[in-house]
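Two proteins were folded this term; both appear here.
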Amino acid sequence: MTIKTGSDNIVYKTFIKNSFFYFMSALMANTSLFLINVILARLLGTGDYAVIVLLMSIVGTCVVLSNLGVSDAITKFIAEHTDRDEISALVSAGMGIFLVLSVSAATALFAFAGHISHVVFKGDMTLYIRLATVWVLCFSFIVFIKGVGMGLHRTNFVILGDLLYNPPRLLYIVGLLAFGISIERIVIGWTALLLAGVTIIIFYFKGFADREGIKLRLPSLGTTKKVLRYGAYLYLPFLSIFMIKYALTLQIGTFSSKQDVSFFAVSMSLVAVSFLLFVPIAKMLMPTVSRIYKSGDHDKLEVIGRVLLKYIGVASVLIASVFCFANTTILRLVYGKAYTGASTILAILALGIFFETIKFITDPLLNGTKYASTVSHIEVFKLIVTITAGFLLIHAYGALGAAAAFLAGAVISCLLKLVMVNRRLGINLSSESLRIFIIFAFLLISLACGLSLTLFLSAGILFAVFSRLVSLKEIKTIYSLIST
């Protein structure tokens, strides 16, 4: 099936336009985060860098556990409404849930800071953990506001949330180069920056709400239940996506060494660069799918699913191949010789990220329709498999075991979701998937036989072209949509 041209392309154009703007803001935010990791890893060394990584993992865990899928549920419901009273009710309900959950998570972290410091950090980091409770509140609010913005298709909220988060932290780290970098200065400075950023977002949102007639009020019980009920379906996939990285990192900190924490963190930060290309598409795809599904146009869903799977699948294999073939070189150039011991970890995670990338197509297709519970069940199973495998493997193999656990969970969830997209939605992606997996299999064979990256890329691209996995006509159509 090919992309159609004509008046129907308004849906595709809106989708691609929003994805482009979100991509640009996410690119700047995530590039800033990546540079922060590089600077801190090089200057702090594996020991102190591991402290920052563990601290961010604890904060991330609190944010994820307190979300309950509210931000994604708000995105879906707001996208389905145009009436300002209904949108006001949804935003008010979401805001109320956010306040209760985020404050509860921050309070719990503050209370158990001493115990966490002893078990995870194996040292006295209680003060830093308690300061990080402010991070929990700020990050949670940013996630909520971005959810509202995506539901309204207002990319300015998404962009603002991204730009007030990582770029200022990077500038602060660069500024510290003149005075000396330490854990204490990093934690205190980042806390002040987050408070300032959230204050700006609050005033900006208030002005927007006043102009658009969105009024915050006491949330109704019915709307709150509606958001929580659907959020529960969306929560488990959200939990798995982020909690796996955090849980594995905290398991390494508890059962292995700080060096292994650093090795796993730098490897994950490198392979996660590929998400810059795909996360914006997934974020904008779900509200688009919701609107198309509500209109009953099954053909459009099938076109979007097949085309995105083909091009994202091919791109993800090629990206994984670069990390697998040039792992040691990349680590040495980016993070320095101290981190070249993570080369095998990087290669295994790169293979896992290929399978993880497929979810950026399958999850919005299922979540944006009426099958969010299907994704939830698969993600619960994946989370259990990954954490259990991590618990068994990290004791013996450290960060290498964590990478293997990540790969196992990614493979299982990817295959299950492709099957369920076919069963639930009648969208058969087997032809595209099979050809993509053939290229991936050739990657594994190339690595095992010691073939060169150039040979693999040449063979992979030729197969994609001659098997009609990609076509010049579709590429031209996509380009015309983007340029329009």
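Next, the second protein.
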Amino acid sequence: MRLSRALAVAAAGLVVAPLLTSGSGLAAPAAGSNTWQPALISTEPLYDGSAVRMRYTEGITVVAGAGAKVYFTSSDSGRMTSDGRRVHNRSVQVSEPQGVSRGGAAAAKYADTGRSVYSDAVAAGFSPAKARQQARTQDGALLAEPPIAASGCVYSETNYPDSDFEWSGCYRLYNVDDADANAWYGAGSGTAHGWGTGVLGGGKELQKGYSEVSWSGSGAEIIEASPAANTTSSSNCGTFTVGLSQIVELSYQTPLCKDGWWVTWNPTVHKVEWHGASAGGSNDSRSASGASTVRLPWSTPTVYMNYRIGWTYACFC
């Protein structure tokens, strides 16, 4: 089996790639069986150097904090559909660190530099309308949110064989002030959306897409997550309210269609996954989104929030 995993380590003004290592206490995603390894084209510091924009082949752009790590994985098992299309799996993961005593300072610096999810999304390549959707400023989608300590976006519009195909998203790492005698806390959220295109003439049918937030740190345990279980919509496409309330107050609305979401929640991983068939372009878009709160012992000084988006498509390619 051939393994595929590329890692770029981002620092202000510096990107080193590819490497096959992970940071201390940081678990890299499982490698796949294909050689899909987007190559770094360029890196550009943003704001005051606290963030970086990385452009890769395959049409992928990542905007993340200067200390973030980026991983690519794929798994192409050779499975084919009944009409002869090949099935491909792809994912991009961004891992952001947060220290036990740096949350408030990071949130203040984030605000002082003028960063926002909207500006991250635009820098990554989202249209203004899609950037507003990611920022949850569209149609009153954002109801309550704690201060943001870090954010970033992945724009994964693949150039080959169809530039109209998309599965992209953004994440937030929040500042959490609450703590007790035995633990400190972190919280984060991730959203992804996209669509497939007609399979004839080189298009790609989107069959699955997900947004996942996991936490890497000794003793990390997710104590609250939303959505907490598989869910669906009674209407063709409506909205779902993602909410946290135990440690932080977070509430926002995100699109949810009748085909619904499959939810995975274990001590360190919260994954929201859409399954179905989208081939109608942007008018046939789907979304996945979730949020979680993590508890960490005082003996763990740093936690990594790992934001991962993944997609499965079928095509004659």
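Residues 103-112 form the longest helix (10 residues). The radius of gyration is 18 Å. These notes refer to the second protein only.
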